[in-house]
Amino acid sequence: MSSLSLLGDAAKWLLAKAKGFHCLAFYGDMGAGKTTLIQELCRQSGVKQKVTSPTFAIVNEYNSFGDEIIYHFDFYRLETPEEVLDIGFEEYVSSGNRSFIEWPEKIEPYLPSDTLRIFITVQSDNSRLIRLEKSGMA
């Protein structure tokens, strides 16, 4: 069974574990599946729009069930952590809306203290291992 065949189950599990967290930070190497997992999380949250990584836009906004807003950030192209202040990152994450963040290690000092950290590791059989850290505690 491929990793992709279990993607729906992984997203469902993650959404259950993420209850109460508004900020979800996704760590993993290029190609680990951060965007793919976020696409499935958005789909299961009722997002009807096409979900793509906002590599150049930095942030995409999606509407989910009940017109809730989900923000999707990709900080791969940032050169300094302070650049997040220019896009109003603190306002986004303090809005109460869910934020999915790719490449959060680039802005670590600006992540809220109650961020759920999701670490995705590619295994030797090309499957993925997902590990969670809640509020910086393993």
Describe what you observe in this structure.
The chain is built from four helices and six strands. The chain is of the alpha/beta class. It has a single domain (4-131), classed as 3-Layer(aba) Sandwich (Rossmann fold). Strands 2-3-4-1-5-6 form a six-stranded mixed β-sheet, with helices on one face.
Could you give a quick summary of the protein structure above?
With 138 residues, this protein is an alpha/beta fold. Helices cover 22% and strands 25% of the residues.
Offer a few descriptive terms.
138 residues; alpha/beta; Rossmann fold; 6-stranded mixed sheet; 4 helices; globular
Itemize the secondary structure elements and their pairings.
Blueprint: H1 7-17, E1 23-27, H2 34-44, E2 59-63, E3 69-74, H3 83-86, H4 89-93, E4 98-102, E5 116-122, E6 128-134
Parallel strand pairs: 1-4, 1-5, 3-4
Antiparallel strand pairs: 2-3, 5-6
Helix pairs in contact: 1-2
